[in-house]
Amino acid sequence: MGHTIRLSIPPRNDHLALVRRVVSTAADATDDLPDRRIDDLSLAVSEACANAIDAQRAIGEPTPVVVEIQLDTGTVVVTITDHAGGFSPDAVDPLPSVEDPGRLRHEHGLGLPLMRSLSELVTFERTDGGTAVRIEVRADREDPV
Question: For the whole model, what pTM was predicted?
Answer without folding.
Answer: 0.82
